[in-house]
Amino acid sequence: MLGKQTFLLQGDLLGRFAKTGHGEIEPGSKYAAGTQTALDHRSPDLVRLLVSQGRVHMENMQYYDAMKCFEAAVYLDPDHEEASVGLKRAHCKIVPRWHFAMLNDDERNHAYEMALNRAVTSESIVFDIGSGSGLLALIAARAGARQVFSCEINPTVAELAQDTVRLNGYDDRVKIINERSTKLRLGVDLPVKQNLLVTETVDCGLLGEGIVGSIAHAREHLLTEDARIIPCAATVSAVLVESRRLQRLNFVEKSCGFDVSPFNHYATPEYFPVRLGGFEYVELSEPFDVLHFDFAGAPITPSQSIVKAPIKRDGVCHAIIFWFTLYLDDDISVSNQPGSTTHWTQAMEAFRKGIAVRAGEPINIQAEHDCSTISFKIIGPREITGINAAS
Amino acid sequence: MLGKQTFLLQGDLLGRFAKTGHGEIEPGSKYAAGTQTALDHRSPDLVRLLVSQGRVHMENMQYYDAMKCFEAAVYLDPDHEEASVGLKRAHCKIVPRWHFAMLNDDERNHAYEMALNRAVTSESIVFDIGSGSGLLALIAARAGARQVFSCEINPTVAELAQDTVRLNGYDDRVKIINERSTKLRLGVDLPVKQNLLVTETVDCGLLGEGIVGSIAHAREHLLTEDARIIPCAATVSAVLVESRRLQRLNFVEKSCGFDVSPFNHYATPEYFPVRLGGFEYVELSEPFDVLHFDFAGAPITPSQSIVKAPIKRDGVCHAIIFWFTLYLDDDISVSNQPGSTTHWTQAMEAFRKGIAVRAGEPINIQAEHDCSTISFKIIGPREITGINAAS
Asked: What's A3-94's CATH class?
């Protein structure tokens, strides 16, 4: 899979080394040409240089550059242990491991498969935002779509998706485009307007992968007026919890008697993913709905809403946990609610100060979204000072 | 905390924009000088430019560069919403959230506190590798150490540690050095040889943060012959488990009937962290010890050992889970064993092919380390084909 590309990269790298006149490599056209013959007698030096450069790129979180260095090193010396390991490590940074859990998420997969099987006809021209492995594009093609265009911003993942589409024999009808969906132009990247949009670009907090903006852009520029949109809607629900352990994932006050609160300057200001099953917590409220999104309706704009959280138990609220129910059509939905076995975790926003709540006394929560993140405020609560206060 | 530094950064950035002659900013000394007065009438343009540049850096995972852009933007316009949010997001990438869980890990903290209280005397000159918040350095200083030198490679964290040391009134005796420990030179960075080394640079798989190399370097160059080393030793233990769910965090074969196995090219080749409490699994073996490290003994070199895993239950082995017991001295230890409440998760190496095991028939496991990672091989097993095979 990597042969030709690697060789080109290697030539490119050699060109760069030649241009910069790096001490260990003689500048000049002989190496810049990047031919295997010209390289042989210098390979060990070059491999060492590439590996050491790859290591520096890894430390600086420049993973694509690291990958290119290690790929070139492995090409020159397939037995080089550190180069192979380095390449694997760069790959893992570029293709994050959650892809596996997602691809193995049968509940998610089958929900999308059912929805696509119902929606796709032989007239369907499908636009898939976020190829990943190409799975949704493949499902649409197998369901009989005339043509599927699928876009993926990660170049490594896009190449992988194209390989997977080919392996499964659908490369005549599925085209993977390595570009952000909002950069695509009708008549240039897509020949005609598409009449079915499918996307699963949602994180545990629903909006974090930009689904609102990408659907809005597609509806304005790339889809027919009456295009089907999968998912058509989503509801976000939440529950208030007491859990010092969860709160302390994001805030700190004292450790061994020392004031280490300066660290809170670097606390995450928004929600972050937690796998609730791994932590002890007590639900203080019933679950309650906080926001609704209609992806096929009027344009979605930033909004706020105030909802009453139905408190069922006395306690100190340390965090709000939230999740989505994604409606693929009128009947089919998929959710990452607590206890669900989907690959998504839940989303949590922790509060630095605990908030005392009493059973039967609902409290007001302001839920807010700016189209790319959801955040919460508790309105007029009684705060408990600091996380080291007794709960 | 950020005032002066921010202003300097801003000058630096302006200098860079001036040098590159970016379209929206006139090149020249007026802006490159970076004085507030000279800037006022151009601020909105410049803020917009900085924010958009910060956004690009974030997308390219260049978090320090992103932070500098957003810091400068916030300095110029403290009310700029996207700049503030961008700065917070960059901070969260630069100071990962696990710092909070670690600082709140009472079990870890108290174990180190007890060990340091016992080891430190008024003669102690302490070398602390990996400052983090400065907590271990502070504990050593409070225990009466004459002087503490503490090094931290992350510049943002190092600054935070220095602030925390000052806040707690120990800046006369604790010095934070923003450098990798293996780069420090005696007589330059450290005035004299240190007689007590303390470090907690261990990840869930023990070796991943480089503890073997950094202790070895310190012993060779920076410590007295008889220096105390905390931790003095560690044991790694493991258990074999059956869990398709855990295996499928790192491997995939088929999804909805499609062959998506090309993704396995990007599977993590080594262990990775899992919070076991969040997953269903069955233990197939008793826990067994696999490796031992004596940090105060003979130099540690890469090694292999073959151990027998005592199988207690019929099943298909999908993964090996492992953890450490870190001995701080002869009596005090801390561990991330399954069920522990320390902040560390457990480490897991998943096997792409399940391996059939039978109760009472021990199997041979080869445990290997190269001083920076631990890996496992099962020797001569019966493999089950693929992860979609029935378990």
From this structure: mainly alpha
